[in-house]
Design brief:
With 286 residues, the protein is an all-alpha fold. The protein is built from eight helices and no strands. Helix 1 packs across helix 7, helix 3 runs antiparallel to helix 5 and helix 7 packs antiparallel against helix 8. The mean pLDDT is 84.
């Protein structure tokens, strides 16, 4: 018996189907991404509008804000402290070895000032908010969405953005500077301990170089970065949570998307703000 011969059309059809699938993905994905950016911008504008109007009119749910602050602090404060210690220690260990070789131990404080205050603290705070806080917000709102609580709120004439998103937004904005300051204090303290006990740096020279290179402008920009990160995280997590569909799988997908998108936006925002800082406030000795 002769072996069956392949039909040319049967080989071409799967290839054409795959090509059509890839072409459709490349055609639809940019438009869907632009639509998501538009919905995020609209949600952010509504959040800011409700924050101003509710605060001026006295309709802001202060109890809900305090509850959300406590809930978000519980999931971010201790991880922030635990993350800050290795950040400060790693900066001191890595830079301390090089400074020992060149005989510049007195500049150990400058490394902590430039590394921890300028970049390490806001980035650590942002990553914590994108990991712990964003997942908490997205899972809470997503669970409400699949239980149709969001639609029920709309039926009662209540805007879910005003009732659910605004308190979380204000709570996140309130705790973001706290996380940043906690990480700066713990990171610099860890760097001082490592420098003094391992690299034999005099604490006085550490603080002198730290104060010479870490200016109040660096601290202000660090706090500003954390505020921008907090606003970005809340908007992304709230949008994904409110649009969650498909049962528990949809909630899981919303949480995953909110964390990934938040991390990407945090890195992009940090790059932009750092560049603006270098342009208008160039580094110089205090």
């Amino acid at each position: 018996m002769s072996a069956p011969t392949a039909v040319p059309g049967a080989v071409e059809r799967p290839a054409r189907a795959r090509f059509a699938q890839v072409a459709g993905y490349l055609r639809d994905k940019p438009s869907r991404s632009l639509a998501t950016i538009g919905r995020s911008a609209r949600l952010g504008g509504n959040v800011l509008r409700f924050c101003v109007t509710d605060t001026l009119s006295g309709r802001l749910a202060l109890r809900e804000v305090v509850e959300q602050m406590w809930k978000l602090l519980k999931v971010t404060a201790l991880p922030a402290l635990l993350m800050a210690v290795p950040i400060g220690a790693e900066v001191s260990v890595q830079v301390g070895g090089i400074m020992n070789q060149v005989g510049a131990n007195s500049l150990a404080g400058a490394a902590s000032g430039l590394g921890v205050v300028g970049q390490g603290a806001p980035m650590a705070a942002g990553l914590l908010m994108s990991g712990a806080a964003a997942s908490a917000i997205a899972s809470d709102l997503g669970a409400r969405a699949i239980r149709e609580e969001i639609e029920a709120i709309r039926v009662m004439g209540i805007d879910p953005v005003q009732r659910l998103v605004v308190p979380r937004f204000i709570a996140m904005i309130a705790i973001a500077p706290m996380l940043c300051i906690i990480i700066i204090a713990a990171g610099v303290a860890a760097g001082l301990l490592i420098s003094a006990n391992v690299n034999d740096v005099v604490p006085g020279s550490f603080w002198q170089s730290f104060g010479a290179f870490a200016t109040p402008t660096d601290l202000v920009f660090s706090v500003v970065k954390s505020l921008l990160f907090a606003a970005t995280v809340v908007v992304i997590a709230s949008l994904r949570g409110l649009e969650a569909k498909g049962g528990p799988t949809g909630v899981a997908n919303a949480v995953n998307a909110s964390v990934v998108l938040s991390v990407f936006c945090i890195f992009a925002t940090n790059l932009l703000v750092s560049q603006l800082q270098l342009m208008f406030f160039p580094a110089r000795l205090a």
